[in-house]
């Protein structure tokens, strides 16, 4: 069996996208259009093209628009289910709420709904299984890591810590927003509102967190400037999303 076909993907699409409101005022950020299609469709196509057919969308802000757009996913040859937040729960809280959809799964993929990473999901999943860790995260090297904060790793690619946003443009490894989790992660997430980055990741380092560096295209649409960059790269994004 392929290393991806038995693994579900959870997409975090519930954020309010306040920084992008000036250019995308009336829709959830993942539905912002890039090349005539929604950014979220790029992610769905990318998953499906690599054999990942089960998708759970953690929706929240303007959730009806996302659910109306994607329905059950059959138009993209995937099966989509929805875990709707009753209030903003943060990245970890949203995953905790979706736990019931993942009862039969020993591991699962998680992706931010506002960033795109050119990645081989199968490679990420295989690395996770080989290292037998609690979490494997995709990281990318950038020249302007100051706005993201950086991921600190040792010579064996084990994550040893996280540095806060420096506010200045310095090179470093950043979290690319794509993870594989062992289902035991749920024991480390409290009920209610919580953040992976602030509340969970720093506390699980001693449980085994592995970083796999990626060298493909990475882009988020968190700011108007980044959204404009995504528009300029729309053809490359479309090609990368369709690549199996």
3D architecture notes:
With 244 residues, this protein is of the alpha/beta class. The protein is 25% helix and 27% strand. The protein has 7 helices and 13 strands. It has a 7-stranded mixed β-sheet with strand order 5-4-1-6-11-8-12, sandwiched between helices. Strands 2-3 form a two-stranded antiparallel ribbon. The longest helix is centred in the first third of the chain and has 11 residues, at 39-49. It is globular. The mean pLDDT is 91.
What is the averaged pLDDT score?
91
- The side-by-side strand order for the widest beta sheet comes to 5-4-1-6-11-8-12
Q: Biggest β-sheet: count, sense, barrel?
A: 7 strands, mixed
Query: What is the straight-line distance between the termini?
Result: 16 Å
Shape: globular
Structural class estimated from helices and strands = alpha/beta
Helix content: 25-40%
What portion of the residues fall into strands of 2 or more residues? 25-35%
Indicate the low-confidence ranges by residue numbers.
none
Radius of gyration equals 17 Å
Number of helices: 7
H and E string: EEEHEHEHEEHEEEEHEEHH
- Give the total of beta strands: 13
């Amino acid at each position: 069996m392929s290393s991806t076909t038995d693994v579900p993907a959870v997409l975090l699409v519930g954020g309010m996208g306040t920084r992008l409101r000036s250019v995308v005022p009336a829709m959830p950020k993942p539905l912002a259009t890039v090349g005539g299609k929604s950014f979220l469709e790029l992610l769905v196509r990318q998953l499906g093209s690599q054999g990942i057919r089960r998708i759970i969308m953690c929706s929240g802000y303007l959730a009806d628009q996302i659910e109306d757009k994607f329905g059950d996913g059959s138009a993209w040859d995937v099966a989509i289910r929805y875990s709707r937040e009753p209030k903003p729960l943060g990245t970890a809280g949203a995953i905790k709420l979706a736990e019931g959809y993942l009862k039969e799964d020993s591991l699962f993929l998680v992706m931010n709904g506002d960033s795109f990473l050119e990645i081989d999901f199968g490679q990420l999943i295989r690395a996770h299984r080989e290292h037998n860790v609690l979490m494997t995260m995709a990281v990318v090297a950038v020249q302007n890591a100051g706005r993201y904060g950086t991921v600190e790793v040792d010579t064996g690619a084990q994550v040893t810590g996280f540095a806060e946003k420096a506010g200045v443009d310095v090179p470093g490894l950043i979290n690319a927003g794509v993870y594989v989790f062992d289902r035991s992660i749920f024991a480390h997430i409290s009920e209610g509102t919580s953040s992976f980055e602030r509340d969970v990741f720093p506390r699980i380092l001693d449980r085994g967190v592995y970083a796999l560096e990626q060298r493909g295209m990475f882009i988020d649409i968190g700011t108007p400037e980044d959204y404009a960059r995504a528009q300029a790269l729309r053809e490359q994004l479309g090609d990368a999303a369709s690549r199996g």
